[in-house]
Amino acid sequence: MGTMTYIEAIGRGMWEEMDRDSSVFLLGEDIGAYGGAFKATKGFLERFGPGRVIDTTLSEAAILGAAVGAALVGMRPIVEMQFADFVTCGFNQLVTNAAKAHYRWHLPVPMVVRLPSGGYIHGGPYHSASPEGWFFHVPGLKIVAPSTAEDARGLMKAAIRDNNPVLYLESKYLYRRVKGEVSGSEVLVEIGTGTVRRAGGDIALITYGSTVQPSLEAADRLAREEGIETKVVDLRTLKPLDTGLILDAARGAGKVLIVHEANLTGGLGGEIAALIADRAFAHLDAPVKRLAGLDTPVPFAPPLEEFVLPNQEKIFKALQELSRY
Amino acid sequence: MRKPPIIRPAPGQLTSKDKLDLYYFLRLARECDNAILRLYKQGKIVGGAYTGNGNEATAVGSAYALEAHDYLLPMHRDLGAHLVKGQTLRNIFLQQLGRAESLTRGRDGTGHYADPALRIYGNVSHLAAMIPVAVGIALAATMRNEQAVVMNYIGDGGSNVGDFHEGLNMAAVMKLPFVLLIENNQYAYSTPVVRQTAAVKYSDRALGYGMPGLTIDGTDVMAVYDACKEAVDRARRGGGPTLIESVTMRMQGHSASDDASYVPKEMLDAWKKKDPILLFERELVRQQILNDEGRRALEDNVRRKIEEAVREAESSPYPDGPEAAEGVYAP
Question: What residues have CB less than 8 Å from A186, skipping those under 6 apart?
Fold first, then answer.
């Protein structure tokens, strides 16, 4: 299919599924004629018409609630939150209605919520959210977070076909910075599966989303400078976690660094560390370490934001420190 | 798509048979509530017990305006609406008792179930949260040209939650086939309506959304039917949503554990004279549609049906504990 950017691959996944299945439709603010705040749905209105590309009122709760309603009666809505931050306005619809409907009613709720996530774009405290921690605790939701163009498309297609509410975390920082080969039409990425991006036997680095690329760069640098080989695991799905892959990596290396952009406390790193402590303890040669965003709002000015969020340099130092333990 | 059948009569055109049907459902709803309270006092109800005493005309009259292919999203005072839409007494009591064969398999109680075959989608405890969901169902029905209408209910309390505003506004902008019925029963738990809104009428809000709004006497089942039928017809024609405020009185506590001592006795006494069932019974007798014999036969029928359903539900097993771990996700 050729090379495309991460955001083009997101659009590609939606486009193909809308072509394939007439029950798939789009719901969101400014997604039609304008093509979305980030232009992910540019051209969709022309191709699929206003009946399936629906510009809504500025109402996150109503958008998400309406998606739940449509999904309950057999449609497959894809909702765009303009920024992941604004999903808080519709939080109740996700945790109260979307997440519990199948458990209570035995009815599928096939909906995708696109969440343009994360910082590194100087968006400040209200345009930089990494929302996974808010929803990770909620039974009934699935969460995916692609880091490559190929996975962006594959996970989008899988999310649309899934019969559960899937939160699709797309890193705004990666939108046009990541480009890659995207394969043919029926390649999906199975939800719940991570992948190994770099082989290595000394340290296991477990990450996802925006911090995959800087993790790979830091691992290469550590190999180059110190000859220490780091295995880099890209989780791709955050809920459910690929526990087998995490445990294999931890047991194989004996040293584990977990990296995520979202802030530390109550983040996924804690759960992953607990999993490893519980089930791979005997294989560990060092405490499980976490590198994450600071426990602050994401600030606006570039030096402040840089101080708060993980980057290649910080990951390199954390790897170096762990290697010397 | 073939035009789905419309069987409900035009406003003002209820036949004698329709009126007897309405009377049957009013009595059935009241007696069901009484049976639920009895079970509660016997310690057999799982969790709380919520009745619709005083609200029967609103619940029954409104749901009677719906066709089989229309969607009903009722709340916890609307047992009558469930029954009119076709729900069985057995399923009602299985839900109350949390049994394995209930529509939620014991995962949730009371009217918190969905029955897609009857197009009933029950409430969650955050009542207003169902308004956007109902709007989404109306959107899906429109996309599929089902010619179906969605009727949803909220209270004088729930009307003040943000979802109310967002849902109604979206429904109006999209001109969806949606009817929202505000059951103004004077109290949201212990809070009187004057502490919920400074407006004279809840239906005045309709103006702000650009949709028709009206306030009706919620104790008059025929008036409720006529108003709802008109709104349902308009919605089906593509005329968009309607907001209806139905004024009633909650004659019992919020739940069975609430003695409602905060409600002035004079207020209850005044509303007792407007009991929706007594009012309608008097009217049916006046119209010579109902006589003593007919009423007794109906009462026997209602009692027998409820006893049978309660017996069946009580003899039905609870779900097994470990089943709780299953079904969080759809396959």
Answer: none
Residues of chain A with pLDDT > 90: what percent?
A: 98
Q: Is A122 a catalytic residue?
A: no
Which residues on chain A are in Cβ contact (under 8 Å) with B139?
Answer: 54, 66, 69-70
Rounded to an integer, the average pLDDT of A274-297 is 98
pTM of the model: 0.97
List the CATH number of the domain containing A121.
3.40.50.970
Which chain B residues have a beta carbon less than 8 Å from that of A96? Answer: 124, 126, 129
- Residues with Cβ within 8 Å of A278's Cβ and at least 6 positions away in sequence, in order, are none
Amino acid in position B213: G
What's the token pair of residue A228? 């220490």
| Average pLDDT over every residue of A95-121 | 98
Helix, coil or strand: residue B268: helix
| Percent of chain B as helix, strand, coil, to the nearest 5 | 45, 10, 45
- A92, A162, B76, B168 from B162: Cα distances, Å: 11, 30, 20, 10
- Chain B residue with CA closest to A109: the answer is B330
Model pLDDT, residue B39: 96
Quick one: fold of B16-255+288-314? Rossmann fold (3.40.50)
- Domain hosting A68: range is 3-181
**ipTM greater than 0.95:** yes
